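Incident log, support desk, overnight shift.

02:14 A customer reports that sequence design results differ from what the structure should imply. Their input is reproduced verbatim below. On-call engineer (initials T.W.) acknowledged and began investigating.
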């Protein structure tokens, strides 16, 4: 690909910018509310465990909405679905800001999460379709930069709002941004029609009832493991067993259908499974570090919440720098070598974390920047090659599948970090144990990247068997 062919035309750049603007709020809002848990508990006179459901409900609704989005995008058109997702997210934001008790707040956060469950995977689908498969690495890198910054910027913005304004502004701040995103999307996004032959395809209700709750139950089990201090309590075993059974039943159900909600036959291509594994372990490593680092700064080094958020910024900065660059280079040079280099840098950075002591800020900050660079360099090329593997009609399903598995990886990373920190004798030891867990995850990611295709392979053939 020549340098001229690599450039995005002005119309494409405008469309990409509008899509990123609409999608950023769902990414920010998922992490922004976390810092307000204590404030919300005091305002509503509730326990932290109950307030936690404002975040858990948001995540579960988001997870359930993702597979339905994969089905709906070709049936109603990407533009219509995008606008509907913005309206739903806006309604949930306004209602959450007006909540008069903790119960309504949780319900309204579920509505907001459903809107985010439409926007987040659809953002990736629309970006790939807008740029075309030959430049998917570049737009995937841009989206990844926004997504990587969200978990870091969200707590900082949330902390500033809670510290300076009423907590309700965490939700009201979305309103002008979403309205602008809606107006621009109506003007910029091309009108697309339902894909031929799909308008009459009914929603696979059985598939929705299996995969959405199945993945959501698995995410819930992981969050309960962190809350209850282990994997052996009934609060964890029961939802985890339900989740595994439902996902297994879904796979059996999907293999018997011609047009399943999310086709497991995508795993028939040799390049798809390692790509999925890379992104899943990337989620484990990213969110394990995002959870452990602020606690290390606060508990071991004595920093406040806002200072800890600022000290976390190098991780996001590293990913913001590397993802667009690595995504763009992958379109020209191939994906494997970039992904291997990024995973190796991630592994070395995780090893550096194991040497951090109480009061140490320089080594964790430098290692955070390096691990952000490594994670971005590994994920953007991998996502790019995954979407080059898939035929156009499977891009929406691939987006949803990657998003769900990344969420599971994120939940697992947070759970493992929480358990290791809680069970340690002191905060510094807990962080060191978590760092070794990150080393393991990064090693697994590095092994998977060696199987990622270097150049774009042929797309998966329809009807391929496992």
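02:41 Re-run completed on a clean worker. Output:
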């Amino acid at each position: 690909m020549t340098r001229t062919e690599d450039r995005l035309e002005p119309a494409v750049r405008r469309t990409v910018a509008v899509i990123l603007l609409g999608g950023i709020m769902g990414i920010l809002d998922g992490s922004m509310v976390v810092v307000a848990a204590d404030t919300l508990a005091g305002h509503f006179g509730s326990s932290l465990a109950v307030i936690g459901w404002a975040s858990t409900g948001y995540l579960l609704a988001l997870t359930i909405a993702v597979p339905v989005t994969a089905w709906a995008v070709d049936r109603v058109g990407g533009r219509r679905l995008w606008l509907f997702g913005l309206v739903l997210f806006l309604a949930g934001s306004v209602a959450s800001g007006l909540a008069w008790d903790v119960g309504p707040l949780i319900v309204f956060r579920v509505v907001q999460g459903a809107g985010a469950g439409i926007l987040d995977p659809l953002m990736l689908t629309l970006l790939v379709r807008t740029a075309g498969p030959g430049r998917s690495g570049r737009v995937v890198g841009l989206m990844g930069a926004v997504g990587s910054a969200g978990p870091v910027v969200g707590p900082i913005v949330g902390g500033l709002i809670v510290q300076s304004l009423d907590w309700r502004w965490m939700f009201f701040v979305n309103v002008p941004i979403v309205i602008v995103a809606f107006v621009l999307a109506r003007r910029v996004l091309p009108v697309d029609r339902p894909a031929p032959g799909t308008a009459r395809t009914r929603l696979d209700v059985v598939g929705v009832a299996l995969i959405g709750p199945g993945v959501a139950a698995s995410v819930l089990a992981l969050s309960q493991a962190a809350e209850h201090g282990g994997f052996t309590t009934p609060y964890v075993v029961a939802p985890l067993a339900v989740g595994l059974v439902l996902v297994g039943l879904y796979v059996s159900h999907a293999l018997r259908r011609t047009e399943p909600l999310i086709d497991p036959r995508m795993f028939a291509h040799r390049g798809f499974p390692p790509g999925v594994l890379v992104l899943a372990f990337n989620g484990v490593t990213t969110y394990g570090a995002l959870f452990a680092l602020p606690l290390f700064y606060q508990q071991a080094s004595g920093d406040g919440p806002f200072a800890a958020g600022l000290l976390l910024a190098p991780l996001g900065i590293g990913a913001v720098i590397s993802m667009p660059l690595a995504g763009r280079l992958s379109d020209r040079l191939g994906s494997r070598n970039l992904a291997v280099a990024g995973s190796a840098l991630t592994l070395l950075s995780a090893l550096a974390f194991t040497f951090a002591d109480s009061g140490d800020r320089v080594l964790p900050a430098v290692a955070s920047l390096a691990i952000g660079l490594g994670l971005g360099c590994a994920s953007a090329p991998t996502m790019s090659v995954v979407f080059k593997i898939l035929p156009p009609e499977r891009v929406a399903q691939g987006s949803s599948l990657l998003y769900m598995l990344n969420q599971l990886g994120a939940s697992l990373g947070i759970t493992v970090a929480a358990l290791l920190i809680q069970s340690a004798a002191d905060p510094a030891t807990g962080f060191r144990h978590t760092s070794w867990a990150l080393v393991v995850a990064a090693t697994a990611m590095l092994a998977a990247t060696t199987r990622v295709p270097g150049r774009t392979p042929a797309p998966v053939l329809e009807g391929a068997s496992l």
